[in-house]
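Preliminary data (for renewal application), magnesium ion complex.
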Amino acid sequence: MELESFENSLIGQSPELNSVTWAAKITAASDVTVLIHGESGSGKEIFAKVIHNESSRKSQSMISVNCAAIPVNLAESMLFGHIKGSFTGAVSNQDGYIQEANKGTLFLDEVGELPLSVQAKLLRFLESTECQKVGSSKTEKMNVRIIAATNRDLHDEVNKGNFRKDLFYRLHIVPLEIPALRDRTGDVELLLKHFTAELAKQYAVKAPNYNKSAINCLKNYSWPGNIRELRNLCERMSILLPGKTIKLENLPIEIKNAKQYAEQKSLVSLPDSGLSLENVEIDLIQQALNKTSGNRSKAARLLGLTRDTLLYRMKKYSLT
Ligand SMILES: Nc1ncnc2c1ncn2[C@@H]1O[C@H](COP(=O)(O)OP(=O)(O)OP(=O)(O)O)[C@@H](O)[C@H]1O
Ligand SMILES: [Mg+2]
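Predicted structure:
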């Protein structure tokens, strides 16, 4: 396992990112099923690619499937393949994504969108590693490593009846929670420099630089589109202001306004004597748990966290 290539592909030094990178490195060394959870643009796909590229399967393909883009009636045949004549339009035998990924990795992106009927068949495949084409009575043994990703709270989807509980547990063997960019503001400047240099090369322009107030504003911004949004901003600035020093006034209005919003609307005022952030967090977690009679999914929602993140923080503070 080459540790360096992880660091080269995944930019960021924050402890929040480092702990996920560390877990990803460990999973790359085995064939274990990984479920990656994170907001849109936070880096789920890049993590999946890095895990595959560092695994013993790296010389084989990683087949990426966007489960949200598969038509419901074709989902089974697209995943598992079909034989000639098994349905109208099945004019020849056809492999599915699983056969294509044989000996390699299958990346099931937006796995929460997979139709329930196919979820059952996927679970059977995961447990038996045997794949049955639509219309066939035979099964074929396959050697496929599964990495799945979702931006949904799959636990909630299970509770709502949209996702099979047994499949959830089968996928959830190693969960990787990619932190949102707003929760690792320490990485903003590093990513900004990385993308700015990369884009300057790509567009053959002189890289702009950012003054302190612009950087502070970017650190305070909530980045709903996460790293993708930050990269897009770097692209815009590199094209419009090559070689210039970018100041607060050059930033897009939605980012400048968001900063003012954050400044004006402090949720809690910091006493002059200061306070322990850790104690505030513990107190808020306890309040959320009391309010929801200990229901962790509901408590997590009250705190704007995923259930996994809440469980992680409860464990960290030894809260039960
Ligand atoms: N740590 C990182 N270092 C460098 N680039 C990153 C990092 N994380 C994400 N990116 C880049 O940000 C962009 C978005 O990442 P990616 O496509 O992996 O996100 P995602 O979570 O799969 O998004 P979505 O939910 O929209 O599918 C990509 O261009 C990716 O290369
Ligand atoms: Mg993605």
